[in-house]
Structure prediction request, 303 residues.
Amino acid sequence: MRNLTYKGITWLDDPDPQEKDLLELQKKFDFHELDIEDCLSEHERPKVEEYDEYLFLVFHIPYLNKRTGRMVKEEVNIFLGQDFFVTLHRGKIAVLDTLWKQLQESEDKRSEYMEHGTGFFLYELMNHFFDGVFPLVDTITKEIRKMEDELFEQEEQVDILRDIMTLKRNIITMRAILLPQRTLIGALEHKNRKFVSKELSLYFDDILDAIERQWSLLDTAKEMIDSLQDTHESWLTHKTNAIVRILTVFSVTMLPLTFLTGLFGMNVLLPYQQHPLAFAGLILGMVLILSGLLGYFAKKGWL
Prediction:
């Protein structure tokens, strides 16, 4: 567990909290045992719990797994008191690492973020988290534009259904992550003023506005990906119909030819069967029938 202290405020951050570490924190800061259980749970819902001496927060942020291309959520548990700020999470989180490095290296940053109390530091931390969501939304929008180009501009159409479904799943995941965060941020405005002063309400409103903008952008992206999926399905249907049309034309043209070859292949005596030009006449007749059918189909626009 790493720690950073500035003007009486201590920030403790643990990227891999174990039960013994949590019990030590509980003993040191008198945390409620249910909050410790929540920290040990890997799938806790976002919430804010208010106590006389501290606030306990659980919130989620979206994260794009570059290896799989899937959007996943990262859970962060926060204990907030008058002179301490504890963040607990599973694995490294880029935003936290960047902020930690800035505070370690810059006296000005420590003064800017930590001098005004733990409530203001909470705002700065969450502001960094949700500012990082905008690039994820931009990435989704760029991917949609890229697929639009592939679908409409390439001469050889490609099957992008898998990519469409991946993006659609990522949009749904982000919406599911952001929805409860709006309630969480709104709840912070009405919690214990000892930790989140009335003046900070405007700051948290700014975060709420950012989440609303992200939600609006995701709504637009959802409409775009739905339209793209409809267009792609229409293209697949058109492609299937074209293939079926070709196969149908092939079957219809082969039907009379198959009939003639089957007829003259029977082991019975037919008129003109013994004529020396019978075979040539049969071939000529088949060619004329085939040409006539193809000409008729072409005139109807079926080819």
Summary: The first helix runs from residue 19 to 29. The chain has a mean pLDDT of 84. DSSP finds nine helices and six strands in the chain.
